[in-house]
Amino acid sequence: MSLNYNDILEDESPRFNYSIPPKDQPHPKNWFGNRSKLNSPDVYEYKNINNETCFYVERKEVGNDKIFYHYSFDIDKNSWVQKAWPDNRPLFREQYLTKNSKPILLVEGEKCVKFCENNTFIKEHYLPMTWSGGGYAVSKTNFQHLKNRQVVLFPDNDEPGRLAMHEVAFNLIKNKIIEKDIKFVTIPKEILLPESWDLADQFPKGYNVENFLTPGSIYLKNYNPKENKKIWSDLEQKVIEKEIKVKQKEIINKYVYVSDRDDFRDTEKNIYLDIKRMDHWHLVLTKRGESMSKRLLKDPKLKKVYRVICHAGLSSGMVKVADEFSEVKPGIYYNTYIKPNIISKLGDVSVITNYYEWLFGKENWNVIAKFIHVLIKHGGRKINWVPVLISQVEGAGKGLLASLIKSLLGYSNVLTNVSVEQLVEKHSTVIEDRQLICLNELSFTGYKADKREVSNRLKSIFADPFIVINPKNKPNYETPNICNFMVNSNDDRCLHLEQSSRRYFIINIKHDREQIIKNLNNSNVLKTILETIKGGEQLSFLLNYFENIELVDYLEFIQRAPASSDLQDMIESSKDDIHKYLDHSFESGNGPFWQVHQEDFSGMINVFNLMHNLRGINKGEMETVPKHSQHQIETWLKSKCTRWPNGEWSKTIKSENGRIRVWLIKDKKFNGKYISEMTENEAGLIYGLNRHFPTPSDKQKWIDKFNGKQEQHSFY
After folding, report:
1. Among the ranges given (1-10, 88-97, 368-377, 569-578), the one the predictor scored with the smallest mean pLDDT
2. What is the rounded CA–CA span in Å between residue 357 and residue 354?
3. What value, to the nearest 5°, has the Cα angle with vertex 15 and ends 14 and 21?
């Protein structure tokens, strides 16, 4: 049995588009001037049932080895290549089937066929044929044209040769090509034949072709699968293994293995398939062997990555990142980003831009236009703030703008209509493979979670450079947070923002419904926007518009949200009722801070004293004080107080009632010294002003204590 290197190695080479060669290229070009090459006994021309040349096989002997080279025509290259047909190969001498009704004698090897063609007995009784590629390539041949013919199988005298003929019989019977008229030449061991002997070799003394191939010969036995159960069981498994191999190739072409999740990711549908489901889905094939996941993970062709990202600055698919991007750690990633197929063209987009300039205001629209410019021109960079578009009138155009951006950035790179629940829930993974996410109709009406808590979680998702993904029943993993965000809402209190909030650019649309409908219908604004979303030339014009937006300081723009008057309004509306009450009391000079006059306030306050005062110095005020907790009081104090020199929010002082901790709200100056510079005793004396003095002389006596030698004074 000979080796066919083309067949052994062909799975390692790329598949090619083979075909019948054109009439103007019937042979490999390097053979045109060498007619002896075509007529060589070691070159075999394979033709199909229609007598069309399919490919050539050249036999070469290198030492004691026989090597076969296949030459086929490649449609894509429009030339002959040294490759074998991967399947559907014709039989050698298949073209004779239409004119010859004799029984088929299947032997192994073209040289053996040529011997048979020159043997008078065989030529008279049989049509000799073979397949290409040797015993390893039986399954690559199409035997369909042997339908209902009588076939005699004459194997080489070695185990691989006999197994190859059993595989031919298996193929013929299983595919219902021939079910009964198959005979198998069986030579007993008593007839001493050399290993790998075939029909073209010298016969042992006392034997000839007629002994083995004469009809009725004792060596010609009807083929019975039941007598070869073990071989057939192995062949059935071989067929299954072939199916598994085909399926394995399909999976490898379609999936990548993601190490962080220990999952396979479908790169077409952008969904994960865990190992268990991968194995269960293919169990009908792999029930007798290794699981599909193990086969895949052992296959060196399987693409393996650490994690999945969506980065517009990298090529799509499997990418290796060194240190060229500060926001992405070095490693191997699968980049889901797909570059949109839009050609930028200069054109008029004023119908769209004029509408949004009117809707948001000119300055606000300029900021949004720059935001979109960064997404397009600086893809993959994180913008550390979020535009929040608010309109209590539905249908103003916020969602349409999100759809326009989605068309510009690419449909698969953007998620719109994402809810707050989808983003902040424990096992959310939507952030890891999108360039932009638009949170639509953000509102906490009827939402169980606390607005402050969810706003804090959103802030982390919006701004942190890395984020921990917690897929269900999987280990946590950290991934670059290069996803950008927009927020659309009809609720003007959709977020809880504090005075320090700098991650939001708030636009609160003030136009009423009548104005919006009128402007959308004027100049076919709505129709133009909808047509642009679908694509076409207008989208190319819009792309060009945003590409050419002028942005002077790109780095500063992405770090901090531009100033917005609507931001301060939302901060004010986000305040707790108790905070608003304390703000009003403090600014108006009455309430729990002062007993008589504003100038009586020492500048310091103790949390528990303040809460005591809130509970009601006078019962008339008690009904007006909103409900509150110690945490709310301390939160308000942090927003108003100056830290003490040691960095602490509160400091222990010695008051007339003992040691207490106080917060510094106003750093007043007494006797040339600021409270923040005072000792515990000095601050304690000043804190004593926070009370009601029966007469002005009593208050003066207290002040005199401070103006004297304070460290020697003891009044506790």
Report:
1. 1-10
2. 5
3. 125
* Residue 493, domain CATH: 3.40.50
Q: DSSP per residue over 286-347, as a string?
A: HTTSS-HHHHHHH-TTSEEESEEE--TTS-SEEEEE-SS-TTS-SEEEEE------------
Listed in sequence order, the DSSP H helices in 5-152 are 5-9, 35-38, 110-117, 120-125
Other Cβ atoms within 10 Å of 69 Cβ, number: 16
**Residues recorded for the chain:** 716
Same domain for 260 and 279, yes or no, is yes
Q: Are residues 478 and 391 in the same domain?
A: yes
User: Of 381, 485, 385, which Cα lies nearest the Cα of 437?
Assistant: 485
- The residues, any chain, with a CB within 8 Å of residue 357's CB and separated by 6 or more, are 365
DSSP 491-530: -TT-S---TT--SEEEEEE---HHHHHHHHHGGGHHHHHH
Q: 672 lies in a domain?
A: yes
Q: pLDDT tens digit string along 283-315?
A: 988 888 899 999 999 999 999 999 999 999 899
- Average confidence (pLDDT) over 554-579: 83
Q: What is the pLDDT of residues 508-535, one digit of tens each?
A: 999 999 999 999 988 789 999 999 999 9
How are the residues of the chain apportioned to helix, strand and coil, as percentages rounded to the nearest 5? 40, 20, 40
Instruction: Using alpha carbons, select from 345, 349, 336 the residue that is nearest to residue 432.
Output: 336
Interatomic CA distance for residues 468 and 179, integer angstroms: 62
Beta-strand pair 127-129/436-439? unpaired
CA distances to 214, 257, 335, 467, 509 from 470, in Å: 75, 18, 20, 10, 36
How many angstroms separate the CA atoms of 649 and 635, rounded? Answer: 11
313 Cβ neighbours under 8 A, 6+ residues apart = 325, 378, 379, 380, 381
3-class DSSP string for 283-301: HHHHCCCCCHHHHHHHCCC
Domain count, the chain: 4
Same domain, 73 and 107: yes
Q: Is the pLDDT of residue 3 over 50?
A: no
User: Which of 16-20, 64-68, 579-583 ranks highest by mean pLDDT?
Assistant: 16-20
Domain that holds residue 660: 575-712
Whole-angstrom Cα distance, residue 467 to residue 428? Answer: 11
What average pLDDT does range 358-372 have in this prediction? 95
Nearest Cα neighbor of 128 from 162, 94, 81 is 94
Asked if residue 318 is part of any domain, the answer here is: no
456 with 558, same domain: the answer is yes
Query: Structure tokens of 247?
Result: 């399926």
Averaged over 218-245, what is the pLDDT? Answer: 92
Whether residues 193 and 281 share a domain: the answer is no
Q: What angle do CA 444, 445, 448 make, to 5 degrees?
A: 70
More confident: 421 or 143: 143
Its pTM stands at 0.70
Rounded CA gap, 154 and 493, in Å? 87
Determine the pLDDT at residue 496.
77
Q: Is residue 342 part of a domain?
A: no
User: Do residue 389 and residue 513 come from a single domain?
Assistant: yes
Partner residues linked to 183 by β-bridges? 152, 222
pLDDT over 60 at 444, yes or no: no
CA separation for the pair 475, 383 (Å, rounded): 28
287 & 431 share domain: no
Last residue within a domain, chosen from 572, 597, 618:
572
Last residue of a domain, one of 183, 198, 223: 223
| 441 falls within a domain | yes
Q: Count of alpha carbons within 13 Å of 705, Cβ hemisphere only? A: 19
The dihedrals phi and psi of 104, each to the nearest 5 degrees, come to -90, 130
Q: Let me know whether 566 and 418 are in one domain.
A: yes
Alpha-carbon span 203 to 433, nearest angstrom? 70
Per-residue pLDDT tens for 315-346?
Answer: 999 999 887 777 788 899 999 999 999 999 99
What's the mean per-residue pLDDT of the chain? 86
